[in-house]
Design goal:
heterodimer, A: 251 residues, alpha/beta, Rossmann fold, 2 domains, 6-stranded mixed beta sheet, 9 helices, B: 429 residues, mainly alpha, binds adenosine-5'-triphosphate, binds magnesium ion, transmembrane transporter activity (chain B), ABC_transp_permease (chain B), membrane (chain B)
């Protein structure tokens, strides 16, 4: 691994909901220009872990370090102040609002008089959508009128627009067509080159092998292991997911 | 995945309504109003359409309509406020006691400052009561239905304690102007000024939005369609002013007014009412609330929270504090409504505001506010209030007795919401 300070270090993170230990002593890290994949069965705790980083949940114990300094992340606002942007699995869109309103929600562009500047936000939305999904035309309709993939594009645009340094993508391609998935893969490549660190969650192991530098596998809230993709095969990863054992550690 | 929308490049023929691009819901509400006016007019030898009656209906609408604009925000965020009627009574009674009993002892009876203090007090009292309810709802997470049901009982009881149930009257003479009536209007000249300014602004806003749309390459209505709409808007405003300016002030009031102005009263001196102050207040409230809803962050967050509270929170919106602000605003508007209601009656008894919460909620809902949250317009709520008041006044002038009036209003409310549901299903909203 590189010797530079990691962009993100999550150390011994724990959180329970009622009796369920959703995340149980997990430590992962992320470097600039790196994509770390999170894999695991349904309910393994992947979304919960990254929601702690994005400020949606408060962890019971553990530490988060950003750029070598201990970070206090209690709210989504805190996370944004560390330039952490998140594409949630649920997309977190207000269905009754249009794409620009969703893209800028909580960070509206204002006119000099302090009113929301819908014109500028719309123009900015057109610009970024042209880059991400050139077919996207329904700029001024409520997002409830959009297809699943179109909604996903809006959520991706929102995370990419604000110059994130740390990007969290929770199954960003789940609803996307072949073409759009390729666009996202290309986008991840570009962002990586710009030096962003990306946490990527997906169930598609082949896709993860292609896009990620390292993969971490979780099972029942615990970390099974973290491996560089070039050191493992797809079968190794599958057996980590299913058996919850690291074949390399066992070997 | 190709998502060319039909709207961007549809060469097919468009109907007249499509060309005008009027929101069909708005059209439906206005249609309902016109039908009601014609029915009631027909059964009253057109007395219902007289300037006198239209003046009264518009004044009586003001108090409920002012509160209905606030109720839109409350319902859009998936809450409800059952306390506004009682709160209106409580504020009205306290503000009346302030004018009748307390302030005269401090600043002297009939002092010029009394009405100003009373107005500020009423609005502040509403904002504080509302903020407290909002805090219990937002931070202690007690459901709004329960908190405001509690408020409904508490304020009605508290209202009694303020004066031990005594009716408070008469109110300060300047304060009374805010309730409308012969003196409480803009007068003829100012009414025309008001009307012209409003008409020019309406046309100006439509022109500006057309220019904006053109700049963004949206589909534009043909110029003739835009022209018709502008003429309609300006015509409605000026028509209303004209009708208000053809309602003569009755003799008794004329004598009073001329005497107070030192003008000699003669039999052939006729002045006209003009636009009543409560209507002016309502117009100002409507404009301000519309700006808040569509042009401010606060408004944007209200609709976002109503559409998806979780998404709003994940976007860094403090939805708890937002709830406090919404209920404080609702309270302040209730304060304004209480000023109008008490000033109009020139007295406050323990029944003031009874059942108003239901009228306000009904107005918002008839006006298209969805109880599921996220959807609702300010102008819709105001028109909803106008429909409710038209029904009530109309039935009274036709001679329908009170119990039957309630029955009809009840049916209309349910019917209106059903129509709305069918409409939404059809249009896919
Ligand atoms: N808000 C919550 N309240 C209670 N339990 C929760 C909550 N969020 C998650 N859990 C529980 O925590 C565990 C981990 O859930 P999580 O959503 O992190 O799984 P995941 O790995 O993202 O799964 P998937 O692949 O299905 O998205 C699950 O057992 C889930 O039921
Ligand atoms: Mg998940």
């Amino acid at each position: 691994m590189t010797k530079q300070t990691p962009l993100v270090e999550m150390k011994d993170i724990r959180i329970s909901f009622g009796g369920i230990r959703a995340v149980d002593g997990v430590s992962i890290d992320l470097h600039p220009g790196e994509v770390v994949g999170l894999l695991g069965h349904n309910g393994a705790g992947k979304s919960t872990l990254i929601k702690i980083l994005s400020g949606a949940y408060k962890m019971d114990s553990g530490e988060i370090w950003i750029n070598g300094e201990k970070a206090e992340i209690n709210t989504p606002r805190d996370a944004r102040s560390y330039n952490i942007e998140t594409i949630y699995q649920t997309l977190a869109l207000a269905d009754n609002l249009d794409a620009p309103s969703n893209l800028f929600l909580g960070r509206e562009i204002l006119t000099p008089l302090g009113f929301v500047d819908d014109d500028t936000m719309e123009a900015e939305t057109r610009k970024i959508m042209k880059r991400l999904n050139p077919n996207f035309k329904k700029i001024s309709e409520p997002v409830s009128a959009l297809s699943g993939g179109q909604r996903q594009s809006v959520a991706i645009a929102r995370a990419v627009y604000f110059n994130a340094k740390i990007l969290i993508m929770d199954e960003p391609t789940a609803a996307l067509g072949v073409h759009e998935t390729a666009m996202v893969a290309k986008l991840i490549g570009e962002l990586k080159k710009q030096g962003l660190g990306i946490f990527l969650i997906s169930h598609d192991t082949r896709e993860m092998m292609e896009l990620c530098d390292r993969v971490s596998v979780m099972k029942n809230g615990q970390l099974v292991g973290t491996e560089k993709v070039e050191d493992v095969t797809e079968d190794d990863i599958l057996s980590m997911i299913i058996l919850g054992k690291n074949p390399k550690a066992a070997a | 995945m190709s998502d060319e929308t039909a709207a961007t490049s549809s060469p097919e023929k468009r109907s007249l309504l499509q060309e005008l691009e009027i929101d069909t819901r708005l059209l439906g509400m206005i249609g309902a109003l016109v039908v009601l006016w014609i029915i009631f007019g027909f059964f009253t030898d057109w007395r219902f359409m007289s300037p006198r009656n239209l003046f009264n209906v518009s004044v009586q609408t003001a108090s409920v309509a002012v509160m209905a604009t606030g109720m839109v925000f409350v319902i859009v965020t998936r809450n409800i406020d059952l306390s506004v009627g009682s709160m209106l009574g409580f504020i009205g009674m306290t503000t009346a006691a302030l004018q009748v009993q307390w302030l005269p002892d401090i600043v002297g009876l009939g002092h010029w400052s009394i009405w100003i203090i009373a107005v500020i007090f009423a609005i502040l009292m509403g904002a504080v009561l509302g903020a407290f309810q909002g805090w219990v709802i937002g931070y202690l997470t007690v459901p709004a239905f329960i908190v405001t049901l509690g408020g409904f009982l508490i304020y009605r009881g508290a209202m009694w304690w303020v004066t031990q149930g005594q009716t408070q009257a008469p109110l300060d003479t300047t304060f009374r102007l805010l309730g409308g009536g012969a003196e409480g209007t803009l007068g003829e000249t100012l009414s025309w000024v008001f009307g012209v300014v409003a008409a020019v602004s309406a046309v100006g806003i439509m022109l500006m939005s057309r220019r904006r749309k053109a700049a963004h390459g949206f589909h534009l209505k043909p110029a003739w369609a835009e022209g018709i709409l502008m003429a309609l808007a300006a015509g409605l405003i000026l028509g209303y002013v004209w009708i208000m300016n053809s309602y003569p002030i009755p003799k008794g009031a004329m004598k009073r007014i001329t005497a107070s102005q030192g003008i000699e009263y003669t039999e052939d001196l006729v002045w006209y009412h003009g636009v009543a102050l409560p209507v002016v207040i309502l117009v100002v409230v409507t404009v301000v609330m519309t700006i808040i809803a569509t042009r401010t962050r606060f408004g944007r967050y209200i609709y976002a929270t109503g559409g998806n509270p979780e998404a709003a929170e994940l976007s860094g919106i403090n939805t708890r504090f937002l709830t406090v602000k919404i209920f404080a605003l609702m309270g302040a508007l209730t304060g304004i409504a209480s000023i109008i209601a008490s000033a109009r009656l020139n007295a406050v008894d323990v029944g003031l505001g009874t059942l108003d919460e239901l009228r306000v909620i009904a107005a918002a809902v008839i006006g298209g506010t969805a109880l599921a949250g996220g959807i609702g317009t300010i102008y819709g709520a105001v028109i909803g209030a106008l429909i409710m008041q038209t029904l009530q006044s109309g039935m009274a002038s036709v001679g329908v007795d009170a119990p039957l009036q309630n029955i009809v209003v009840g049916f209309v409310l349910v019917f209106a919401v059903w129509v709305d549901i069918v409409y939404r299903r059809r249009t896919g909203n």
